[in-house]
Amino acid sequence: MTVHALALQLLTADDPAGLLPAREQMALSLGWHIVLACFGVAFPTMIFVVHRRGIVRDDPVALGLAQRWSKVSAVLFAIGAVSGTVLSFEMGLLWPGLMGPFGDVLGLPFAFEGLSFFVEAIFLGIYLYGWGRMPPRRHLLMLVPMATAGVVGTFCVISVNAWMNAPAGFTMVGGEVTDVDPWAAMFNDLVWMQFLHMWVAAFMVVGFVVSGVYAVGMLRGRRDAHHRLGFLVPFVFATVAALTQPVIGHLLGGNLGDRQPAKLAAFELAETTESPSPLRIGGVLVDGEVRWAIDIPALGSLIAQNSFTEPVPGLDTIPVEDQPPVNLTHWAFQAMIGIGTLLAGAVVLFWFLRWRGRDLLEKRWFLRFATAAGPLAVVALEAGWIATEVGRQPWVVYGVLRTTEAAGSNSGLWWLLAATVVVYAGMTTGAVVVLRSMARRWRAGETDLPSPYGPEPREEVTP
Amino acid sequence: MTLPMVVAAALFVGVLAYALFGGADFGSGFYDLTAGGAVTGAELRTLVDHSIGPVWEANHVWLVYVLVMWWTAFPETFAVTMSTLILPMLLALLGIVLRGAAFAFRKYAATLGQARLFGAVFAVSSVVTPFFLGAVAGAIASGRVPATGRGDLWSSWLSPTSVFGGLIAVGTCAFLAGTFLTADAVRSGRERLSEQLRRRTLAVGIVTGALVFAALVPLTRDAPTLTDGLAGRAASLVVLSAVSGSATLVLLFRRRPALARFGALTAVAAVVLGWGVAQYPWLLVDEVTIADAAGAPATLRALLVAVVLAGIIVVPALTYLFRLTQSESWTRH
Q1: CA-CA distance, A321 to A42, in Å (whole number)?
Q2: pTM (two decimals)
Q3: Which range marks the domain in which residue B269 is found?
Q4: Which of residues 391-410 of A touch B (CB under 8 A)?
Q5: What total number of domains does chain B contain?
Q6: Given A71, A119, A456, which is nearest B314 (Cβ)?
Q7: Per-residue pLDDT tens over the stretch B174-212
Q8: CA-CA distance, B55 to B127, in Å (whole number)?
Q9: Rounded Cα distance, A427 and B94, in Å
Q10: Complex confidence, ipTM
Q11: Nearest CB to B330 within list A84, A121, A133
């Protein structure tokens, strides 16, 4: 056993009892919620596009899509709201060592996020129940505050995460937090780029997932106007997002080597400092040695440091106790990059051939790919979060507070994790069952989906 | 008024709003649960669906507002409360998750069997959740959350104050919901349903009132600081609550549910406000005062910006939502 592995083992032995279950709990509940959060952010805008088209062009197909999507959003937003609340509780339950000393540093953006959550929930209520009960144009406008709140909410939540990566707005004096400036914490150095990255990611995820649903329909031979529009609108959003994302991601990672060298070293699987650094694809770090990697010379320096010679600092320059779990970080990072590149390439191909007069929607292989693009985008999203979160370890607030210090001593959290797995599995099953049954009934020609109890189904209004 | 006090007051406005509006949503689960079989209960369940459907998510955000204000303005007390009261907090959270998800699922369930399953989950979790939130309030009000370290995981929230707090929370939620649902049923012209709801709401009101009186005796022994405040500074609020609660029952009895809604809101608001006034200046009773618990002044000032923005943006929007849902044209459909 190497010194490195031994040290890691010793470190784990001293961890508080609440650390590992808290980590797993946070990963599960955040990883679950983030997918629904994407829908909260991006879906209202897409619904706005089809709903507006339905009203302005008097297009029944577009209007029908808007109605269906709004019903789907009713289900998704409800479970998004409750799973978001879980996270609010968990901040205190799992990380007392973070929230106690730093609550007044990092809390302000959450307060603004609360406001945008209010706006979103209020106008969601009005919009969902407003079908046929309001003048159509005013009804359509109810989506605008929802979409705006999605943008503001993303900014606020991401602001806290950016602060964890680039802490600001306080000074540590003898272990005590002083000089708190919540605005400086909120508008930290990283917030804008990280916000853009996540905001665009939300449109990628929702765009590819929703268009994928209609790709399945087309694969099964349903090639009507409804499916074409249902595919194209979200696909256009996904296209813009997929093409913008690599640029944003590159800018975000631009000065990572200065900010968080350990994270960059793990991303690039740089065990030693090489000048120029290669771009290392795949590979595993075993006993301090990189195995089975494909190296592309000099490209690592070029991408990570915007230079032909400046190296990626190797892990050997970083004390062992300050290194993140390298392999997981590296693989998550590369999965995100790989999938992002694949999706960007695919949308370019689609629009290029369309411009040349060839429609890939006629090709079954493309429809299969479009179906897979949704889950792939979700995987990229999750991988990105794993890369940035695991890559920040062992810190929860980079350079200031270690994750071990933030966790509590509650070993009973394992029970909580087990219960959460059961509840979330149940919620996922419930959502899938209900959404599939909605789609099935829509295909069978039902439009209203009345509540199934009762002798007189409630009359639902359609405009 | 000092800065921490202003922020604490703003936080408490959230507690109050959640107790009233979130409470009314939870309380409707009681009528859903006791509505009877799928056929006989269908009309009532449809009414519940229709009444809370557009508003429950907005009302739920008050809870998030309270949590966020708490951990930002008074961070250390938030951390210790979460540590000590982890069990009731988690049980409340479980109820909140199941309630919200099952409610949304039931609305679009494909079959009667699924609707019954989701409906049962929704109704049971709605009834049970306020108990745990009331127990949390009882634990804080009876001084069982220590300023540092961690209180007992069980006895901290299974004291008489917590148990009565929980039961009263369940009762007041059901009472609020009952008056609102009765008014909704009358407005949509369903006479049989409104009669059924009126009778049940009356029963719930009488039981809850009796519970409040029964709680007074153990409360004096179990939570002396709170009792002093309730008998002293908050006495007028206690009287107001008793008077408006009784008036609500009379109004309901005389078939005036639209007016009774305001009586019920006043009664519950006075109880909750009475608790807050009675435990002032403590944030965690007998342990930490509001002034001592406060975080950085710069953060408190910044929070006031958020509060003012909430007043400008959220309150008008909420009012618009409530006006729409309580209007004739929305109810008739």
Answers
A1: 40
A2: 0.93
A3: 3-332
A4: 408, 410
A5: 1
A6: A119
A7: 999 999 999 999 988 899 999 999 999 999 999 999 998
A8: 18
A9: 12
A10: 0.93
A11: A133
